Amino acid sequence: MAETDKKEYVVGVDLGGTKILAGVFDSQLRCLGRARLSTKAQRGPAEVIKRIARCVNDVVDECDLSPKQVRGVGVGAPGPVNPESGKVIFAPNLPEWTDVPLQKELSKHLDLPVSVENDCNVCTLGVYHAELKGKPRSMVGIFLGTGIGGGLILDGKLYSGFNRTAGEVGHMVLEVGGPKCGCGNRGCFEALAGRAAIFRRIQAAVKEGQKTMLTEMLGPDLEDLRSGDLRKALRRGDKFVEKIIEEMAEYTGIAVANIINLLNPEVVVLGGGIIQQLADDMMSIVVETAIDYSMNGTTKGIDIVASDLGDDAGITGAAVLARMQPK
Ligand SMILES: [Zn+2]
Fold it and tell me: Measured in angstroms, how far is the CA atom of residue 172 from the centroid of ligand 1?
């Protein structure tokens, strides 16, 4: 076999409601290149799958590789997935995605083996294998973004549960009768500390006359508010934003305490866009609150840490997934 025909590369894909990210990874899980394409979710599953294939081909070409050098493709999809059939059971942010045979269809387009998993499970795999080198026996990943998701590694393996829905940490109820959540329930962790919920709360407070530097930065409607803006306002001494972030960190700490009481994992890793921007401001409060609210002795020796992977967690984990395919 010629040197260049060795199948040593994998492609990891992060399929989101608005964008598709793909990255080529070598055998050491180093990312050699990335590509991105808008999802165009409104065009329906068949078209989105074509776009995923295009994004994969683009990134392989961008890295001056041929598809022959690619061993397989892993995909993180935004909804529950049956990893055996490779079907996406449904995806709340992708219209018409019910029982979509993503693995089969994408594999046909690319002529490569494809594996599919839920995106939060994939991010958890990425953190576990790329950041923690697969060392701890158990780990829980919590990802704070627009919503809040999570994933579980138990006894060194991804645990997805009876109905493949394990790890939904965002829908733990932390406040009975609290604010309404996207899932239809009230007082979920996500409805208290997810980005969408926090932004709604800030916008509502501003409407009622709350003073904040955010309006000076972005105008009265706060239309283009991003996690990074919260960090900027905090650095400028905005007391209102400081209080919001403190609360968000406390709710996260309480969620971590519940998880530690239930599973006693060796490591809890926090990731996602919010943590990427605000880890320095949130982590000490998260850890303190987690210790405070968990049962005596349960947190001893447990690491509660922030992930450094940021936006790359999805493609990195998808690359890990691709590497797990039997050769
Ligand atoms: Zn919920």
Answer: 7
Name the residue range of residue 85's domain.
3-125+313-323
Neighbours of ion ligand 1 (CB under 5 A): 171, 181, 183, 185, 188
Q: What is the DSSP letter of 55?
A: H
Whether residue 168 sits in one domain with residue 153: yes
Pair 108, 166 in one domain: no
In 3D space, the residue among 47, 38, 46 whose CA is nearest the CA of residue 17 turns out to be 38
| Cα 178 to ligand 1 centroid, rounded to whole Å | 11
Locate tokens 């968000």: which residue? 248
Q: Which amino acid is at 74?
A: G
Same domain, 294 and 163: yes
Between the CA of 181 and the centroid of ligand 1 the distance, in Å, is 5
What are the tokens at 323?
A: 């590497």
- Short-list 216, 319, 234, CA closest to 278: 234
How far, rounded to the nearest angstrom, does the alpha carbon of residue 18 sit from its chain's CA centroid? 14
Q: What is the pLDDT of residues 57-81, one digit of tens each?
A: 999 999 999 999 999 999 999 988 9
Q: For the whole prediction, is pTM greater than 0.90?
A: yes
